[in-house]
Amino acid sequence: MSTASDAAVLRIADAIGALIEAWGFKRNMGRLWALLYLEPQPLSAAEIGTRLELSSGAVSMLLGELQQWSAVKKTWVPGERRDYYEAETNIWKPVSRVFRERELRWVQTALETFEATQANLGEPPPDDPRAGHVAARVVGLTQLAQVGAHLLEAMLAGESIDSLPLKTMGELAQAAAAARDKK
User: Fold this and answer.
1) d(CA 10, CA 156)
2) 59 and 29 in contact (C-beta within 8 Å)?
3) Using CA atoms, how far apart are residues 117 and 120, in angstroms rounded to an integer?
4) How far, in Å, CA of 163 to CA of 124, rounded?
5) Among 63, 89, 157, 169, which one has the highest count of C-beta atoms within 10 angstroms of its own C-beta?
6) Which candidate, 38, 80, 82, places its Cα nearest to that of 60?
7) What digits encode the pLDDT tens for the residues 74-111?
8) Which residues lie across from 73 on neighbouring strands?
9) 3-state secondary structure of 2
10) Is 162 helix (H, G, I), strand (E, B) or coil?
11) d(CA 60, CA 57)
12) Dist CA 84 CA 40 (whole Å)
C-alpha cells in the first residue's frame, strides 16, 4: 500500500472517529470501522491494532462493540486460522439500528414522561398564569416528542418524510408565544 493511501485512510478514520464521538460513541469505534470500510480485504485484529496504534485488548473490545451494533462482522479468509474482520458496507444498517435502539427509545421515554405529566397537570386554574404557562409548554414538548417519534419511525420504515408537521408545529409555537406576549 502506498504512503499516500495510508495517510488518506488514517485521515478519514480520524474524521469518522470524531463524528462517531460527537454521536456519543467511542472515537476509536469510528476509526476502526472506517479503517475496515476503506480496506479492500478483511483485516485481522493484530493488523487493526498496528494500523491504528491500539492495544490488542482495545481492539478486541472495540470489535465486540461494533459487532453488537452490526457495524463490523467476522469473516473467514481461506488458508488463515485467525479471525478477520470487515466493515458492514450497507451504512444504513448500523445507523438504523442506533436510531431504533437508542434515539427512538430516548424520544419515546421522554414522550411518556411528557404525556404523564400533562395528564397529572390537568386543566390549570384560570387565576394561576404560571400553571397555565407550564401546562402550555408541556403540551408543546409532548407534541414535539410525538412528531420526533413519528419522524424516526417513518424514517426507519423507509417512508418519505414530510417536513410540514415540523413547520406547522414551529408556526403554532410562534403564534402561541405571540398571543401570550400580547396578554
Assistant:
1) 31
2) no
3) 5
4) 32
5) 63
6) 82
7) 999 999 889 999 999 998 898 899 999 999 999 999 99
8) 86
9) coil
10) coil
11) 5
12) 13
Whole-model pTM?
Answer: 0.74
Between CA 34 and CA 155 the distance in angstroms is 24
- pLDDT tens per residue across span 33-86: 999 999 999 999 999 999 999 999 999 999 999 999 999 999 999 998 899 999
Residues 105, 111: Cα–Cα separation, whole Å = 10
Selection from 142, 136, 140 nearest residue 111 by Cα? 142
Q: How far apart are CA 4 and CA 167, in angstroms?
A: 46
Q: How far apart are CA 129 and CA 131, in angstroms?
A: 5
Strand partners, 43: 85
Spell out the domains of the chain, with CATH numbers in brackets.
3-89 (1.10.10.10), 93-182 (no CATH)
DSSP per residue over 90-130, as a string?
Answer: -THHHHHHHIIIIIHHHHHHHHHHHHHHHHHH-SPPTT-HH
d(CA 110, CA 118) in angstroms, rounded, equals 12
How does 104-134 read in b/e, with b if 16+ C-beta sit within 10 Å?
Answer: beebeebbeebeeeeeeeeeeeeeeeeebee
